[in-house]
């Protein structure tokens, strides 16, 4: 069971993609691509025991395939 904050991957208002812990007002880190943000989020999630919630460009949560 995940104890850490969910890590959201979403578009950043100034461009690029951000990793943002649930409930945080600021991005943990900003990346040029979604793939880079996802790799970073995997590391954070593993260290914190949290889950990753990827979003689409429009902000909606991306469903798992």
Structural shape? globular
End-to-end separation in angstroms reads: 22 Å
Counting DSSP H or I runs of 4 or more residues, the number of helices is 1
Query: What structural class results from the helix and strand content?
Result: alpha+beta
- Summed over residues and divided by their number, the pLDDT gives a mean of 92
Radius of gyration: 11 Å
- Helical fraction equals 10-25%
- List low-pLDDT spans: none
What's the helix-strand series? EEEHE
The largest beta-sheet arranges its strands as: 3-2-1-4
Quantity of strands, as a count: 4
Fraction of residues in β-strands: 15-25%
Q: Major sheet: size, sense and barrel closure?
A: 4 strands, mixed
Annotate the secondary structure layout:
Blueprint: E1 7-11, E2 17-21, E3 29-31, H1 34-48, E4 52-54
Parallel strand pairs: 1-4
Antiparallel strand pairs: 1-2, 2-3
Report on this structure.
By secondary structure, the chain is α+β, with helices and mostly antiparallel strands. Helix content is 23%, strand content 25%. It is built from one helix and four strands; from the N terminus they run βββαβ. The chain has a four-stranded mixed beta sheet with strand order 3-2-1-4, with helices on one face. A hairpin with a 7-residue loop joins β2 and β3. The longest helix has 15 residues. The protein is globular, with a radius of gyration of 11 Å. The model has no long low-confidence stretch (mean pLDDT 92).
């Amino acid at each position: 069971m995940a104890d850490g904050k969910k890590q959201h991957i979403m578009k950043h208002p100034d461009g690029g993609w951000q990793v943002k812990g649930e409930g945080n007002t600021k991005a943990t880190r900003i990346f040029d691509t979604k793939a880079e943000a996802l790799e970073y989020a995997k590391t954070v999630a593993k260290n914190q025991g949290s889950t990753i919630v990827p979003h689409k460009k429009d902000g909606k949560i991306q469903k798992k395939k």
